[in-house]
Amino acid sequence: MKLLLLLSLVALAQCLVSRIPLRRGKSLRQSLQEHGLLQRYLKQHPDNVAAKYFPTRFSVEPLQNYLDNEYFGTISIGTPAQKFTVIFDTGSSNLWVPSVYCSSLACSNHKRFNPARSSTFVSTNESVSIAYGTGSMTGILGYDTVTVADIKVLNQIFGLAETEPGDFFYYSPFDGILGLAFPSIASSGATPVFDNMMTEGLVAKDLFSVYLSKDGQSGSFVLFGAIDNSYTTKGISWIPLSAETYWQISMDSVSIGGDSVACSFGCQAIVDTGTSLLAVPNRALSSILSALGANSNGEINCQAVDTLPSVVFHINGKAFPVPPSAYVIESDGYCILGFQGMNVPTESGELWILGDVFIREYYVIFDRANNKVGLSRLP
User: Fold this and answer.
1) Which of 70, 164, 239, 255 has the most CB atoms lying inside 10 A of its own CB?
2) What φ, ψ does residue 329 adopt, rounded to 5°?
3) Hey, is 256 helix, strand or coil?
C-alpha cells in the first residue's frame, strides 16, 4: 500500500513540474509527511523536483518526551561516532558530555566520551566550568566532529566532563547538554553548535524551531534551519529580543481573570527549553498562587482544576494564555501548579523563565538572523 501511495505522489510531483493544474488539496510535502514517506522520498529522488520544493539544508532532531519533564535527543561525537543523549537547551550555550576522565558518581551510569577512540579529536589545555539551576560540571575542552540531526559540524568545541557534583545528573535520563543560546554567555568562550552551523552554511536559514509534545506523547523535535508551516496555521507572533544572551524578551504583564497579578510595570523573561516549569519571582509566585486558590506549596484541589482560569502572559502587545490543563500537574491523585519561585533580578526588572509548561502551548521559532522569537499557538 505504501508503494502505491509513493508512486501516486511521484506522479503528483511530475504534475507540478509540467505546471498541470491540480485540484485544491494537500501539498505533496504534507501528504508525504503524513504518511511518513518524506525522508524516504527525498533519499530515493535526490535529483527529482523535490530538490526545488524542499530546502536541502534543514534537518529534524527528534526529541524523547520524558514524563513531560525533560526532552532530549541523540547526537554523536567523534570518528567513529560515539552517541550521547543530550538536552537541547535554549537557556545555555555550551555542549558537553561525560568523559572517561570523570570520576563522579553521575558519570558512572551514563555514556562517556573516549577521545582515544576518535581519530578526529583535538585536545586543548583549556578548562570549562558550568553551573545550572540544578547541577553543575567541570572539565576540559576539546574539538571533534559533532553530528546533530544529520548535520555534521567539523571541529566543534565541546566540554569533556571530569566532575559532575551532586546527584542531579546521576538521576537524569540524559548524558549531557547542548546549549542553543548566544555565544555571549558561553563558558570559556566556546562557540555554540548552532553558531558553527550558521557560519559553515549548514542550515538554509539562521533559525531553529521547537515543538514539545504533551502527556508523554511522541513527536517532539528541534527543526534546524526551517519553520514547519503545519504548526503555524494560527499565525506567528514575532517578539524582538531584549538581550542577545539567553533568548530574552520583555513582558508587559501577567494577568489572571482579566486582573494583573504580576509584572505590572514590565519585566524580563527567557524562553528556556531546559527548564521544566514556569520559574517566577518569589513575590509574583505568592500572587499567582493566591489568585488560583492554591496553598503556599502550590497544591490545589484536583476537583477545582476544570474551573480555573488561564494565566495570561502579555508580551509585545499580545496575549499568550496558558490554560490550567497546561499549568496543573497531576500525580497520584495530587494536583500542584507548575510554577516555582526564584529571585534573579536584572537591570531591566525581575526575570521570569518561560519553561516547558509554557512552550508546550506554542510552536516556538528561535530566529538568530533577526534576533527575535516567534510564537504560534498550537491547537
Assistant:
1) 164
2) -110, 120
3) strand
Q: What is the pLDDT of residues 195-218, one digit of tens each?
A: 999 999 999 999 999 999 999 999
CA 18 to each of CA 15, 44, 49: distance values in angstroms, whole numbers, following the listed order: 5, 21, 11
What backbone torsions phi and psi does residue 247 show, to the nearest 5 degrees?
-85, 80
150 included as an active-site residue: no
Q: Which three cell numbers stand for residue 125?
A: 589545555
Q: Is 372 helix (H, G, I), strand (E, B) or coil?
A: strand
Number of H helices, E strands in the chain: 9, 27
Q: Do 178 and 269 belong together in one domain?
A: no
- The residue from 144, 195, 252, 272 that is catalytic is 272
Residue 206 is part of a domain; what is its CATH number?
A: 2.40.70.10
At 349, the pLDDT band (50, 70, 90 cuts) reads low
- Do 315 and 180 fall into the same domain? no
HSE-CB of 49 using CA atoms within 13 angstroms: 13
- Mean pLDDT value across the chain: 88
- Say yes or no: 303 and 198 in one domain: no
Phi first, then psi: give them for residue 197, nearest 5 degrees: -60, -45
Q: Scanning the structure block, which residue is given the C-alpha cell 549531557?
A: 176
* Annotated catalytic residue within 68, 89, 252, 367: 89
Asked whether the CA dihedral 83, 179, 176, 156 is positive or negative, the reply is positive
Handedness of CA 41, 46, 49, 51 (dihedral sign): positive
b/e map 313-335, b = 16+ CB within 10 Å: bbbbeeebebebebbbbeeeeeb
Cα 256 versus chain centre, distance: 27
Q: What are phi and psi of 366, to 5 degrees?
A: -105, 105
272 is catalytic: yes
- Burial, 233: exposed, middle or buried (Cβ in 10 Å; 0-12, 13-18, 19+)? exposed
Tell me if 96 sits within 8 A of 130, measured CB to CB: yes
Examine residue 46 and state whether it is found in any structural domain, yes or no: no
**78-112 per-position pLDDT tens digit:** 999 999 999 999 999 999 999 999 999 999 999 99
**What is the domain count for the chain?**
2
* Structural domain for 189, as ranges: 61-224
Q: Distance between CA atoms of 355 and 68, rounded to whole angstroms?
A: 11
